[in-house]
Specification:
With 344 residues, the protein is of the alpha/beta class. It is built from eleven helices and 13 strands.
């Protein structure tokens, strides 16, 4: 058999570990070959492939990013007949099955392929951990560790200068990174997209904390968090991507300015941005990505198409792509309430 792979959407730690696992598991059966499309769906449309061998996937386990490259290309953009373009690309490359590794946008294309009867097996990937039907996605724990390390470092500079430090982290629709990292780092407030926040209430909490003798505070805010009332300083939206999502930014800076205005406390903002995506994956993410890769090739070889591999409890299972994409997996309210116990 000839297997195709691609990595789509934003890069994240663990992608290379999936590629390595698919190839290593697949090479156990003699005669099978593996081909990677360059730069996600853009490579499919352009027919740009590279062969994946034992040698070309050696040493990938700790390596961040993706050797295949990635993009946010949408095969259906501008009314294009994406399915025909993909079918032609698979036929031209003589592939028997495609394994796309990506988040809801990448896998939404995979779902349309499955509904058209095309052989496809999905692997979930999202920093935000907001993909349904799987408990965790690889890359999330690495992002949480990076954000936690940042909070630890901000504590010392905040305390030295008696400042409020605002840390903006990723999280368009879901506050998983903000809440995990905020809880691990001892943040005094965590603001998430699932719960519109009251700026006056937040400032009152920070003032109360300072009156109790604490001269600094740490506020963690997800990029998609929104205030109940507009801030004096607007957040920025830098257009949309190929799938129509707004490029978010600016909530951290706007919030820091508002806190300083209402409390008089000197405030600063740190935006982690793409730092959360970079570098080597944690041990947890290496293992999870490896398990996903092995499960994906097993499903493909077994002819079980139209599914996504997923983590449920401690087991790797196969779920319909439609289940994974039905709705975003938002932050568990009970988990957030646990974090609230430690707020200012």
């Amino acid at each position: 058999m000839r297997f195709g792979l691609l990595t789509g959407g934003g890069d994240c730690p663990g992608l290379n570990a999936v590629i390595r696992a698919v190839v290593r598991r697949g090479l156990e059966q003699e005669g099978d070959t593996f081909w990677g499309f360059r730069y996600g769906w853009a490579g499919v449309l352009a027919g740009e492939t590279m062969e994946l061998t034992f040698e070309s996937t050696a040493g990938l386990l700790p390596r961040g990013g993706t050797i295949l490259g990635t993009s946010r290309t949408n095969p259906f953009a501008d009314g294009a007949d994406g399915l025909s373009l993909i079918a032609h690309a698979l036929e031209r490359a003589q592939l028997d099955v495609l394994i796309p590794i990506g988040g809801d946008d990448t896998l939404s294309v995979a779902l349309r392929m499955a509904e058209a009867g095309m052989p496809v097996v999905g692997v979930p990937k999202t920093i935000d951990n907001d993909l349904n039907a799987t408990d965790f996605t690889f890359g999330f724990h690495t992002a949480v560790q990076i954000a936690t390390d940042a909070i630890d470092r901000l504590h010392t500079t905040a305390e030295s200068h008696n400042r409020v430090m605002v840390l903006e982290v990723m999280g368009r629709h879901a506050g998983w990174i903000a809440t995990y990292a905020g809880m691990a780092g001892g943040a005094d407030a965590i603001l998430v997209p699932e719960r519109p926040f009251d700026v006056k209430e937040l400032c009152a909490r920070l003032v109360h904390r300072h009156r109790r003798g604490r001269t600094f505070s740490i506020v963690v805010v997800a990029e998609g968090a929104t205030p109940k009332e507009s801030l004096a300083t607007s957040t920025t939206h830098e257009g949309t991507d190929a799938f129509g999502h707004e490029r978010l930014g600016g909530i951290g800076a706007a919030l820091a300015e508002e806190i300083e205005e209402q409390t008089g406390f000197e405030s600063r903002v740190t935006v982690l941005g793409h730092v959360q995506r970079g570098g080597t994956p944690t041990a947890y993410d290496r293992v999870l990505a490896t398990r996903f890769g092995v499960a994906a090739i097993d499903a493909a070889r077994g002819g079980r198409f139209g599914v996504m591999v997923a983590l449920q409890g401690t087991d790797i299972v196969e779920v319909p792509l439609a289940d994974a994409l039905r709705e975003p997996k938002l932050l568990d309210p009970a988990f957030y309430e646990t974090a609230e116990v430690f707020f200012a």
